[in-house]
Amino acid sequence: MGRAFEFRKGRKMKRWSAMAKAFTRIGKDIVMAVKEGGPNPEANSRLRAVIQNAKAANMPKENVERAIKKATDKDTANYKEQLFEGYAPHGIALLIETATDNNNRTVANIRSYFNKCNGTMGTQGSVEFMFDHTCNFRIPNNNIDIEEMELEFIDFGAEEIFADEDGILIYAPFGSFGAIQKELENRGIEILSSGFERIPQVTKKLTAAEIADVEKLIEKIEEDDDVMNVYHTMDETE
Q: What is the pLDDT of residues 49-65, one digit of tens each?
């Protein structure tokens, strides 16, 4: 198995406080998708993907419809995606994805978390190069021949395809999202969920005490309403 498989396994093993914020994050994704491409999912591939993710997260249909309607209101603030970079204690690189309607607030908050937990906020580009920006799709495992699918989807950018208990996962570079989404839809393959992740190229093993120091900062950052995802270079495999 490749790095995407190990990364996914590590993310599943850790406590997933993000689940508590799933609806909030999807709500922001809906606003950004509608502002960018309109409220019609058939004509807006980004919105289509967000609705699939909402369904996978068991978000009620009425919540999704309400969020789409709200996003069409010109008075609804748009969210800007902003990336923050820095180091946690013990040399662990952090990459933080945010979606904010007030950048000054978000910058101040993120800086305060680094300061309070003995981290160092970095400049743009200081750690981003340590992560591969990837896209992923989850589809049902309907007796699909994974090796055959890998051969077929290489032409669309797929780099790694593997099965887990929830279906089949396809990983590819960030820029391949549209091509793979279109090909899956053309083949009538149901997309259960999709998204983007940043996979560390190299990870670092820490002691239990050092892990606790790093997780203290990560948990502080993840609690912020503007934060969508936090990625790090700490080794989470057992």
A: 999 999 998 899 999 99
